[in-house]
Amino acid sequence: MDNILNTAKTWLTDFFDADTKKEVQDLIDNNTEELKDRFYKNMEFGTGGMRGVMGAGTNRINKYTLGKSTQGLSNYLNEVYKGEELKVVIAFDCRHNSDTLAKTVAEVFSANGIKVYLFSELRTTPELSFAVRHLNCHAGIVLTASHNPPEYNGYKVYWTDGGQIVPPQDGKIVAEINSLSFEDINFKANPDLIELIDKEVDEAFISESVARGSFNAKGKDDFKIVFTSLHGTSITAIPEVLKRAGYKNVTIIEEQAKPDGNFPTVKSPNPEEPEALSMAIKKAEAIGADMVVGTDPDSDRLGIAVRNLDGEMEILNGNQAMVLMTKFLLEKAKQEGFKGNEFVASTIVSTPMMEAMSNAYGVEYKTALTGFKWIGKMIKDFPNQNFIGGGEESFGFMVGDFVRDKDAVTSTLLACEIAANAKANGSSFYKDLIDCYVDYGFYKEKLISLTKKGMQGAEEIKQMMIDFKENPVLSIDGSKVIIVDDYNTSTSKNLKTGEVSTIDIPKSNVLIYTTEDGTKMAARPSGTEPKIKFYFSINTSLATASAFKEVNAKLEAKVARILSELKLN
Which SUPFAM superfamilies match (predicted)? Predict the structure, then answer.
């Protein structure tokens, strides 16, 4: 506790503003537990950058923690690109303080002689990724906490390729940041180096989204869409993209259309949570809509609901949406003629169905760690290959490579194209998905997340991962575990043969068990939230589409047994 108190007292010096000093002094005087949580560690970069609760402290998002990160990044840019006219672009979302924090970040860059393009108002994360290359910038920043609760904010860093920072840049940038003290931050802005941007970049991004996401789908006049931005940034792009692509029957949930960092109409602005789409689904049922689309606050994740076999609106999970969108893109690429250099990509905790489908098309499948930065890195690492598309289970998808992060704007249009075309052909999005199960195997996935907040929660998550390694799972629902993949040690062990092979992707704190019947279970701490996550995938064959309901019920029962067995239900 002495170390924590000493660290906190350094925030009482004259370098820090009066409001910050008052906030810290109040914690020292009145709230020891809160003081501990705010100062027991420094805010760290995770799978999605730096994300945390706002407030004073080293373990909080504020002008000083972001200023220090920006100073470190400025130092690194000035070192790597000596003599060049450095340029960065900055965007921000609807969260509290995002606009003021973005202005602070811009000021620090400008104080270090770096030209800044700052969006005048909130914009989507995919537009920021696009803008990095469109404006020939050396880096990009978006102020967002994605789908986290209202008290959070965050800072995502993008590199020259438009993708998030990855090795070796990330480690070098973090080392530079860690070498600094807060007093090293240069807050003396150079206004001449800060330029506000908006419509020109908007037009370029929207035009490209329409071009990449449109496939001349039939039946647009007869296709009804309900769209909700969940109080976030996608209201600035998706309605216009759908309009330009020819969709006229788009109903926007007006109660959720106004950007609002309190997210007043939802418990969580996360389309992964069924409750988030409840208002849109209610409207869809009332007007007989075909599809519901909802996006998270920074518009990189999309949730989709479509009519099931009983005509009811059903929310698809990220794996289901990803499979059908990838299948559609693969089919289009096949019709144009494969050149032999194509690939699709997903992550180690996403559905194995992606690989099965890619193999059926004879297209290379690449797998990456969780987080779209790794898929972006693939595009950069293999410039002679053509990225068709790909995604991850957490409701993210990327169409081609013009955006180098998950992109709910273009993906929304793609999903609508698939569904409208299917309806015009006498099918549906849901029926097309079932056909995929017949062709490539019926895969069903389930995600369980356990929230463990604060310093104690972090220790609990750490211990849970240790326990899984020291007391490994031996069987799941009666099927023996035959392969244990430990991404922390980069080893894959075959328990039948004893053979140990090397996993050729970067190390990460992830364990994956595979059983004899193909069941998979993965465990990993979240890189952006105080959670430990468990991912399950089971599969069987589906002989005909007519057998879907019966086989689906059996898989649902299997999932329930597994969760009960592992005490996760």
Answer: Phosphoglucomutase, C-terminal domain, Phosphoglucomutase, first 3 domains
Q: What is the pLDDT of residues 371-422, one digit of tens each?
A: 899 999 999 999 999 999 999 999 999 999 999 999 999 999 999 999 999 9
Distance, in Å, from the CA atom of 365 to the CA atom of 184, rounded to the nearest integer, reads 45
CA dist 237 to 124, 127, 257, Å? 8, 9, 12
Beta carbons within 8 Å of 339's beta carbon, 6+ residues apart: 386
Q: Quick one: 513 exposed, middle or buried, by C-beta within 10 A (0-12, 13-18, 19+)?
A: buried
Q: Are residues 528 and 509 in the same domain?
A: yes
pLDDT, tens digit, for every residue of 66-106? 999 999 999 999 999 999 999 999 999 999 999 999 999 99
Round to whole Å and give the CA distance between 327 and 388.
Answer: 10
317-331 tens-digit pLDDT? 999 999 999 999 999
Contacts of 193 (CB under 8 A, 6+ apart): 109, 110, 113, 114, 115, 116
The residues near 392 (Cβ < 8 Å, ≥ 6 apart) are 318, 322, 346, 347, 349, 350, 370, 371, 372, 375, 406
Task: Look up the pTM and report it.
Answer: 0.96
Dihedral, CA of residue 499, residue 505, residue 509 and residue 511, to nearest 10? -40
User: Do 518 and 472 sit in the same domain of this protein?
Assistant: yes
Q: Where do the DSSP E strands lie in 168-220?
A: 194-197
> Look-up: residue for tokens 């465990």?
523
Cβ proximity of 314 and 307 under 8 Å: yes
| One domain, residues 30 and 103 | no
234 is known as an active-site residue: no
- Please identify which of the residues 74, 110, 146, 428 carries the catalytic annotation: 146
The residue count of the chain comes to: 569
In this prediction, residue 44 has a pLDDT band, given cuts at 50, 70 and 90, of confident
Q: Residue 261 domain-assigned?
A: yes
Instruction: Examine the domain organization and report whether 312 and 404 are in the same domain.
Output: yes
> Do residue 87 and residue 115 come from a single domain?
yes
- 10 Å CB burial of residue 382 (0-12, 13-18, 19+) is middle
Pair (232, 324) in one structural domain: yes
CA pair distance 235, 17, nearest whole angstrom = 35
Structural domain count, the chain: 4
- One domain, residues 132 and 221: no
Where in the sequence is the domain holding 19, given as residue range(s)? 1-37
Q: What is the CATH number of the domain that holds 306?
A: 3.40.120.10
CATH number, position 545: 3.30.310
Placement of tokens 């496939």 in the chain:
215
